[in-house]
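User: For a benchmark we're assembling, each entry needs the component sequences followed by a predicted structure for the full assembly. Here are entry 17's components. Please fill in the structure.
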Amino acid sequence: MLSPELGHYALALACVLAAVQGILPLIGAHRRDVRLMGLAPGLACGQFIALVASFACLIHAAVTDDFSVQNVAANSAVSKPLLYKITGVWGNHEGSILLWALILGLCGAAVAAFGRSLPSALRARVIAVLGLVATGFELFCLTTSDPFARVWPAPLDGQGMNPLLQDPGLAFHPPILYTGYVGFAVPFAFAIAALMEGRVDAAWGRWVRPWAVAAWCFLTCGIAMGSWWSYYVLGWGGYWFWDPVENASLIPWLTGTALIHSAIVVEKREALKIWTVLLAIGTFSFSLSGTFLVRSGILNSVHAFANDPARGVFILGLLGLVIGGSFLLFAYRAPSLTAGGLFAPVSREGALVLNNILLCSLCAVVLTGTMYPPFMALLAGRTLSVGKPFFDATTIPLALPLFIFMGFGPMLPWKRAHLWPVLNKLWLATGLTGVAALIAARNLSGALPVLCAAAAVWIIAASVSDIAGRIALLRAPLLTSLARARALPRSIIGAAIAHAGVGITVLGLAAMSQAQHLIVEVPVGTTEHLAGYDWTLTDVREEPGPNYTALTATLEVRRGGAVIALLRPSKRSFNSQNQTTTDVAIHTNLLADLYGVLGDKHGTDANPTYVLRLHYNPLAPWMWLGALVMAFGGALSLSDRRVRIGAPQRARLSSTKTGAA
Amino acid sequence: MTTPPSPPTRRRLLMALPLVGVGAVGVGFWKMLSGMQNGAFNPHDINAPVLDRPVPDCTLPGLPPQDGFGTAELRALTAPVLVNFFASWCIPCLAEMPTLMTLKDRLPLWGIAYKDKPDNAAGFLRHSGNPFTRLGQDSAGRVGIDWGISGVPESFLVGPGGIIRWHSAAPLTEDTITSTILPLAQKLRTP
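Assistant: Structure for entry 17:
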């Protein structure tokens, strides 16, 4: 029933529907033809349904071990656990492009479903732009990366999946990350539609922001999951390697963060309009080019799993059309957008502009570090690699002022403000920061970690005092404060929570700079000392797994004689690929991770010794916890009443149909 | 669509800047891709300006217990040695290590820990294996500048008399070793 041919057909159908979705509503919006514009939501939903069908067929082929499908034969195997047969569908180039298209289709359907309060011409244009982008990617999928291609004769068993990808964290990482990347297609489509109409106003800012915030939440979670994955799967004990693939997700995150802040200024004050449109186009452009350039092989990375210059040419053409086309439109139409909303340098707008400048400078630095090597190779014929020292030296000086301004920016009034009254409200936060700096200076070594820890406490304390001040906590009776808290817009609470999340992450980063580790080669029975703990290797044995054999060590961690944790790190050998993966053992009490890795076996069979990596990582979980808190803050602000009811539309209705309601 | 009122030229030029930037980057990528296809461009290959010249003046402190080296030791060579710049923070270096471990019995390897803390470099070698017979530290990266390296890992084949005979700015592969390095080293051994 769900044959690969059906899937291929559904993909082709989706491509045709996307092309129609990209053309007819645009013509309709141009001619003010209501019927043509009205086609947009239906086409978007139809395209999405066709993509769901196509994706279901690919999953079906993987689950039923249909090795006549090349993609399944190359990436699956009979012995693979069912979960990874499903998630393995997007663990390879072809499948991940189909997933990309599916999520883009979902975005179009979501605008069709939730965008009923949009003016019909704007909605038609937004959906049409999404359709045009989708057409390109579905064509890419059909022509150069067909996931349904058959092989004949069909092999009896597949080649299996890259064992590194056989992990629950990574299995769900791509859908979340892609939802973040592709989600920025919606603000992008809004920006293009606004350029076509030649109008950006407060209502536009209000429509764009929830979509950008939603995409940002997913991207935040996706990046955190990727970093967590490299922490506990790769076994290097680190969390961020400034690898091109990691940078490819960080760059749009930085501009996306700038976008969700500058869109507030458009919404509240009708200023920064052109800049916001540019950010919306830029963020999606970075999402697109980052992910796809890694695939073309120009940016080489240990993570990249599909390098093919032939595909690269198609990708580049597509990027040229999408990105080049939108910047052409920008160059043509943006000059005619009227600027508005004057404000003093010291004001909420001023703080948000500063935030944008710092975030975009950070983005420029990361972009430079990532793109410098290939461009130097092209222009000067020299290859070089830019590593962690460059990124550490350039990003931290930009991040620290950002952290400082984050504290009081949300408390500044709009239009014109004075610093003194705001700082006056923050004396408690300032005091706490001072205390934190003293504690940090006693416990942490190095000036930078101390500064970062102080900045982190400053962000958290300032966010808490912002909310406490707004609800008059301790200054009014508790019930009054509670009532005030309930009346406070969720977006304000959400923003404070998201900021506190940044603080939590930064605190984790600062503490992680003090991580201790030890690499030893020892026989069974040895005890090592690290960070005040006694680590004893008590046992190493072989254990069979579903499609691998594992060499598992038992590490007893004691403190003051009492057993704190039993760590069981292992090395897995996958038979079908001759590949081994390390399975890290982590014991966490949320304040620190005890982290053990089993390395190679040396010595004779009678007297074996084992390489062990032992890490003590203070506050490590906070880095990812902070990212979750950030995403939660974003989600909370999405549940704000004003976002839900589509206030601009109601205002418009009541102004045109007064008395009718 | 209504025609917008004509804005000042300066504003127009400013708004066209992103397009120009995107265009330039796009042309660059297109050249890279077409170069990659016809073999004219490889982001991981490089021709060093130091080829067939004596090694630059340098003194590298050792990483205990291993001895460092310097110009004197390199100039005194009678058989070829492969000098490898590496760092614990460099992922390609980690990927290259297994290859170096297989090479160490066929060719002497001297390592230079580039812009690395001694503890980190030592830990890196304990974990991934230490193929080096001598190990120097270039913690400030000054020696790297003199040798003209642009990143890590980079390898130099230094022949007798301390002359740099071959250079690669990419992680070494088994293929490069068997097809280029070992034949060249053999030729340098028997003049």
